[in-house]
Specification:
This protein is α+β, with helices and mostly antiparallel strands. Helices cover 30% and strands 26% of the residues.
Length: 397
């Protein structure tokens, strides 16, 4: 039986483990925390909705396909605990720029069945709370519980979880990967997938990956007489959720290369101010509530596309750069080494479909996505671009 090791037990690691196990591959997930889904995947809820642009691009295509793919997996996973609720989402036309964008989107035929334009009265009725502006309504969007989702994804006899265990380094030995861990532990497998977000660059084989940690703070407040009537997710440039387990989530802030692990009053105020712009009655009702929060770090590649696929040997590439018209199959691929990371704030949408891409590469040698699309996600694309091989970076499959 083919075996695999996954470093990182967040949504990327868990969804990759699920995809590999679905193909009969035995997986061991290494997670340094006591439980899986404790960092960026540790928020109480995440918002699940695709992104749309007036000029559709690869990122939009990925989130649209990924949203559908994630929801298909959710339908397959049976659980006594709710994982996902398609409560819908209202994207408010909260400033002139957003209003122009939404008006342009409504002129495109391909989006007519996905969302509809609503005025402030319709938005108020759908949301369950007073809103002074309209926007776009996406009925299939909703909230998801990341930790519960990750547990369901790894609930398989083929998946073993090693928690409170930190991977220190790995090497290729006799056609197998050996991962050395703390406590003088080590394990071996045929396949190795790196899924530890911003920490991918701690390993020498991943040094060429271009990724930036982005700090985000969300805040929580208990439901009150006004807020308990919220029926859908409401977004401006921030969001507020319906009450889930008695609490609303609101956020989120963005700060690249900010490593402060503590909640800040400045970010709490940003989230509250954004909430007040969404709904004044809601803002007034929560002013006397106890507000808590959570800080986590997204991992964001320079081009905002996830990292998903097999790695090239950076050392060999630099020693002997390929020609611009080289055959991708002749490049120095590192046998059995893959990455699934860099999902930014869209991990619940993009990580599962990227896990499926990797599982197909492992099982069939080919991605299940279109070749140009899969090339756009390959984690070694930055290495090739650095060497002036942009054309080659776009045709790796």
């Amino acid at each position: 039986m083919t075996t695999a090791i996954i470093i990182g037990g967040g949504i990327a690691g868990c969804s990759t483990a699920y995809a590999l196990a679905q193909k009969g591959i035995a997986v061991t997930v290494i997670e340094r925390h006591e439980k899986i889904a404790q960092e960026a995947s540790g928020n109480p809820i995440a918002v699940l909705y695709p992104k749309f642009s007036v000029k559709p691009n690869m990122a939009d295509k990925l989130t649209q396909q990924g949203s559908t793919f994630t929801q298909e997996i959710l339908k397959k996973l049976s659980s006594q605990v709710p994982i996902f609720e398609a409560c819908g989402m209202i994207q408010l036309a909260f400033n002139p720029r957003e209003e122009i964008r939404q008006n342009a989107l409504m002129q495109l035929d391909q989006y007519q069945s996905i969302f509809k334009a609503i005025n402030s009265a319709e938005a108020t009725k759908i949301a369950g709370v007073s809103l002074n502006m309209g926007g776009l309504y996406l009925p299939q969007a909703g909230w998801i519980k990341p930790a519960v989702f990750c547990e369901a994804l790894t609930n398989s006899a083929l998946i073993k979880k090693m928690t409170l265990t930190k991977a220190l380094k790995f090497d290729r030995k006799q056609h197998r990967w050996q991962v050395c861990m703390d406590k003088n532990q080590s394990i071996e497998a045929d396949i190795l997938v790196i899924c530890n977000a911003n920490d991918v660059k701690q390993f020498k084989q991943c040094e060429s990956v271009a990724i930036t940690p982005v700090r985000g703070q969300i805040n929580f407040f208990p439901e009150n007489t006004i807020s308990k009537s919220i029926k859908t997710i409401i977004c401006s440039d921030h969001f507020v959720s319906p009450a889930v387990d008695g609490f609303h989530s609101t956020g989120t802030t963005y700060a690249a290369n900010d490593f402060n692990p503590n909640l800040t009053e400045v970010d709490t105020r940003k989230n509250i101010d954004a909430l007040c712009k969404i709904s004044e009655p809601l803002c007034e009702a929560m002013q006397h509530e106890s507000i808590n929060g959570r800080v986590a770090w997204r991992s964001s590649p320079l081009d905002y596309m996830p990292l998903a696929g097999q790695l090239l040997d950076g050392e060999l590439i630099h020693k002997n750069p390929p020609r611009h018209n080289a055959n991708a199959a002749d490049l120095p691929w590192i046998e059995g080494l893959y990455i699934n990371a860099g999902h930014g704030s869209k991990g619940m949408i993009t990580a599962p479909i990227c896990g499926e891409l990797i599982a197909n590469l492992v099982a069939n040698g080919k991605p299940d996505l279109e070749a140009p699309f899969a090339s756009k996600l390959n984690p070694s694309r930055f290495l090739l671009r650095e060497l002036g091989l942009k054309q080659l970076a776009q045709s790796l499959y």
